[in-house]
Structures are given as C-alpha cells and as structure tokens.
Amino acid sequence: MKYGHFDDVHQEYVITTPKTPLPWINYLGCNEFFSLISNTCGGYTFYKDAKLLRLTRYRYNNVPADINGKYLYIKDGDTVWNPGWQPTKTELDSYECRHGIGYSRFTSSKNGVKASVLSFVPLNDNCEISQLTLTNGSSEDKKLSVFSYVEWCLWNADDDMKNFQRNLSTGEVEVQDSTIYHKTEYRERRNHYAIYSVNTKIDGFDTSRDAFLGAYRGADSPEAVENGKCTNSMASGWSPIASHQINVDLAAGETKTFIFVLGYIENPEDEKWESYGVINKTRAKEMLAKYQTDAQVEEAFAALQAYWKQLLARYTVDSADEKVNRMVNTWNQYQCMVTFNMSRSASYYESGIGRGMGFRDSCQDLLGFVHLIPDRARERIIDIASTQFQDGSAYHQYQPLTKKGNSDIGSGFNDDPLWLIAGTSAYVRETGDTSILTQMVPFDNDMSVAAPLMDHLKRSLDYIINHKGPHNLPLIGRADWNDCLNLNCFSAHPGESFQTFGPSEGPVAESVFIAGMFVKYGEEYAQLCELMGDADEAARARKEVQAMYDAILKDGWDGDWFVRAYDAYSHKVGSKECREGQIYIEPQGFCVLAGVGVKEGLAEKALNSVKERLDTKYGVMILQPAYTEYHLELGEVSSYPPGYKENAGIFCHNNPWVSIAETVLGRGDRAFEIYRKTCPAYIEDISEIHRTEPYVYSQMVAGKDAKFYGEAKNSWLTGTAAWTFVNISQYILGVYPTHQGLSVDPCIPKGFGDFSITRKFREGTYHIQVKNPQNVEKGVVSMTVDGKAVDGHIIPYEKGKEEYNVVITMG
Description:
Glycosyltransferase; about 800 residues; carbohydrate binding; glycosyltransferase; 6-stranded antiparallel sheet; 42 strands; alpha+beta; Maltose phosphorylase, domain 3; 20 helices; single chain
C-alpha cells in the first residue's frame, strides 16, 4: 500500500494523506541551523547542537504522536484547521505534503480556502522560513484569522525536560512590533537569543503557553484560537511560546502571503550592554530584513535549490531502472548529506540529547559524502581524529558543539581505530590531497601532544596489533561494530559461576569482524604509506595484514562460514558449535569484501551460507538462529526479543557488506538482489508493512522471528545510507576512486542493460558509457578514454584535466 508517490522531475516525495503509518519527516538546513519537519508539521529546531542549543520543544513518547511542531491555525468561522492536519486533525478537503531536497511544502484546502506552506532553511542565515500562501477559491469573501504557534525549549534540551524547579522560573520574552524575542538564559550567557517573527502587522500575540492553550487543554484545541483572539500574554517563567494573530480579509479569488521567520541570533562574547536584561536586536533586524517580501523568499529558495542541484550532480546515473536512478541521483545521496550533518544525534528515534557525533558513525558516514563535499569531509576527519588517545583508541562519541570527546561513554570499542583509516583513505583517494596526512592533530583535543594525522593512523593500526587475544585475533573490548555483542561482561556457562574478568585475567574476547576490517584497512593504510614514501612502514603493515589473514583462516573459519568471535572463555560465537546464534552476517560480508578466503574457495562457501541461512524476502538477517533466552556471556545482543535489532533483525547497515562481497566474486545477480531488498524505492508498495519513509533507508527491519516481520525502525540516521551508496555507486555500478584514478569495473545483474554515469572526480568531469553486449555480470574487455584505447579499467588521472569521455565494454 502506498501513501504517496515519487515525483522524480522535482526530486520530491509526494505524501497524499496525513495518516501515514509513522511520521514521515524531512531535514531542513545545510550548515549550522537545522529543523526536523514531519508530514503533519511536527518536529523541532536547533542551532549546531540538538542538545545544548535547542530552540523548540518536541515531546517524544507522546500521545497523540508527533507533538510539538511549528503550527499555523486557520480559523474560518467556527472551523479551525491546519495546513499540515495536525494538531487539530480537522478533516481536510484536500491534503498534500511534498518533501523535497532541503525543503517541505504543504498544500491543503478547507471550505474553499487553499493554504500552502513552504518551509526551508536558507543557505546563509540561521533561521527557518515558512511562507504561508492563502487563496480564497470560493465565490464568497472570507474573514479568516491565522494563529502561529511554537513552544520554546529552554536551550539545553536535557535540562529542559528535567530541571523544573529552576526552569519554570527562568522563561523570559520580549515583543516588539511583529517579532517575539525568546531571551531565556540571556542574563546568564548574554550572547544569544531566538526570535519568531512575521512580515506583517499583527492583531495580537501570546507568549504564555497557559494563556494561549487554556487550562488543561492541548495544542489540538487552543482556547485563544477557539475564542478568535490572542490574550497578549507576556510569559514570566513557566513555559514560554510564540504565537502571532493575523486577521485576514480575503475577497473571492484573492491570494495573500505571509512570511514567518524562526531564527537564532548569537552576538560576539566581547559585546557589552547596559544591563543583563537588555538584548541587542540589531542582528535580528538585519536578518529579518532579508525575508520581508515574496521576491526575497523566492530568491533564497532558488539559491537553495541551485546548491542542491550542483551538489547532487557530482554523481548521476542514467539506466533503464528508474528506481536505481531515483535512489542514486537523489535520495541516497541526500540521506548521506543528512547523516553528515547529524551523525546519529537528532532524529525521531534519537532525541538529540544523548549520543552526539559517533567516532565510528561519522567515519562511515564520510564514505557516502566525501565525493560531495570533500572540504568539509577533511574538517570532519580532523574533528574525529582529535578525539583519539595516544594509544590509538578513541572516544566513542563527541559533542558537535564543543567537538570534545564524550567522557560519559568513553572508549573501548575496538573497531573504532580502524574506521579512522577507512575515512582518511576514502578522502585521499577521492581528492589526491596528501597534505591532510601531515597536518598536526591533537590527541584528546590537547594540542600539546599533537602529531601528524599519519601518526594517528599508525597508532590506529598498532592498537589492533597490540591488542590481540589467544587466537591472534583482535580483542573486541567493550564491543565492535555490533554494540550489543558485549563478550567481556558478566559471563556464565553451564556449570560455571558468574564472574567479572579483571585486568590480569583478560578481557580476552576476540572479534573476527575486526580481523576482517584489519585486512581491508591495513592494506589501505599501506597504500597511504607508499604515497608518503614510507616503503618500510608499508611493508610492515602488509606483514601484519598477512598474519591477520592467516589467523582468520586458522581460527576464524568454521567449515562453511566465518566465526563471529570468541567470548571471554575462548568459546566460539557464531559457530555450528553454538545452539543459538550459529551464523552472523558481519564477518561473512567484511571478510569476503576484504578478500579473505577468495583464492581458497572459502568466500563462496560463506556467502552461500548467508543465502541459505540468513536471507529473507525483506533482506539478510544479522544472525540465526535467534536467541530465545538471555545469554549473560554475550551481553546485550540476546536482550532483544527474537527478530528485533541485533537479535536476528535485518540490519540494513550490513546488508551492503554482503552485496559488496558478492561483487568481489563477480555475482552481479545476487549482489543486486540484496541491494533491492532493503532499497526504499523497491519496497514503497509495502509501506503499510515497512511503515518508515519510503524515500530513505532505515537502520533495521524486523526479521522472520519477529511478530511484526518486515516492519522497519530508526530511519534516516543510519550507516545504511553511506554503505548502500558505496555499494551501488562503487561496486555494482563499479566507479571506484583509486589513488591512480577512477576505476570502472561494474558488477551488475543480467538484463540490467547499458548505462551511463557522470562523475565529478577531483578537477575533472567523467562522462562514462558502459556497454554490455554479451549481458555479463562482471568483466571489462575494453576501455577507451577520449577515443583512445587504455589497458585495464583504471582511467589514468591527469592533473588539471577537466573532461573525460570514457567508453567501457563489458564481456
């Protein structure tokens, strides 16, 4: 069942009913100011950091769902309605929400009045614009009243929802003309405030939530709206809001527009004012002056669209499969940009107050956006590396505002160090910029102990080398990529008492997954060493990679698939020897994509086992059989009910690893089969089952053991976005950046047909045509570059060259 459709011409998803299975959202903002907005106008807004600088409140776990938002109430006689349906939920005569690239547009009608709201964050200002257009489509004149509504958060979103004894006495506002100033905390910080303004004279306002809503009422039935008149309340403590009242006379056929601006203003710290209660409104007025007319708004909106157009043009495909084109050219890359901005910090599943930016998460996200914004990818790498410790380990998370490591979470996730190599390698291959490797980067954000980034990468590699277990496999630490596989926690096997392992006894649990990572990224580290002229270090790295390769084959192979790990007792995890959790997806995908077991014939066995034991119609499950009881020696992985999350759910994040692994073996049919099972464009028709947005990837889909098999959770902010784009763009379509130039070596399903790709790489634009006259899955028999035959499938990079015309023939 569908709840809308794709509009590929305008790069929009068109939602045709507000009653979607879950809120379907969009992200507004490209730089430092962001809003989440749902298809019913729910969501929240923040500047830089969703925890520390939250502008508006949002209520998770609320009933009804998806409250609060930025609401516009239209009162037409006794009828009150909202263009986005919520919160009054008045039955509308028509409804449409168009989520576009960096904007959302709501168009609804009721009793002859049409309302359209365009919401977006302009490129160069810290504000959100909502342009309301009202049209009287009836034959009679209309007298309407429009009421805006936002509820302020008292900045620190965590403190805002807990510290009532203080916060209920701190709210402060000011109203000047049509601008409402939220200056709570201004006495303390004296350098920032928020505004909500409209570009017309207002007929009333409210800044007190109690006054606007009325006693024991909700946003679905505000007393001020019901009465048709705001109270001009001035909040003092309690819960400040911002609401404008605009009375509108609309003649038959007449249209009027109003521009609402929600913004954040930060003045330099060194500015001084007469008293703690007086705010400098100059910057607010300067910003508001830019968005007073429809022409100004249209200009800002056109600039935003132009920005996204040039950005997404950096990689485009034209194939016979419109769904591949749709995802590659628009939605997958757009989601990669959102994960760049948010990591895992602020969504409808992450409240924005806990995780901040993830070390592992941000490194993986970089793989999907480095081709789009390489300069900002460089900055991100430096930010991430600055949270590393001198021994090569790192803070698992850091706060986006301070860029300091999160000491509450700390370190100990032993896959983290290798992801820094992965992200840096991707950046250097993309840009050719080796200067980043010599940039001085602090450890733990302390410049007194800074070292070149290349030294950080060496310490990442050495951390794994120096932390191996009894089988010469990497120690897992607190966990590896699978955060729930906590093998060094309380341990108990039949006949053994509970115990906690101390430093002298361990922890000794080992990860075959990290071993596969080491093989792949150890080789990429060696290539960086060669670029820097350090042949000895490259040789040392490759010697360690070979040792790890051998250790995997010796103790990481279980006969038909790769073992997942060894627990703190050196018992296998993910083995035929286990009653539950016999096979895990992670080492099958990552070991094979790293090349482990390919020449020995083991890789094919492992992937065949994945298809036989883990595959479903909705994607590849993370493990089987599901854990039906709690295993203390395994940690959190078995705490979930069967079929959910890490306990046999379909983790969309690691499905691309298996798909990439299949391309390593040249099995294009199977690689594409895996790709399409979790790809939103292919599963739009089952939205009533899938439930999350049909235009972006989700982290998890419930596996076959779950009660709600096929239901997705945790959409938008997931490494699925980056890894799936890497899979489809670099391995299936086959355009892979190397240090020598672009490699073009597709691995496609039979019947995919010819296709073309435009790819911007360094200074050049590559126009690539792929012909497949023999309908093969993999294999390049010839390549011409600008009409000249070139051996192999790597297009030689020529510094300064701006255009390449490439023809690849498969066979």
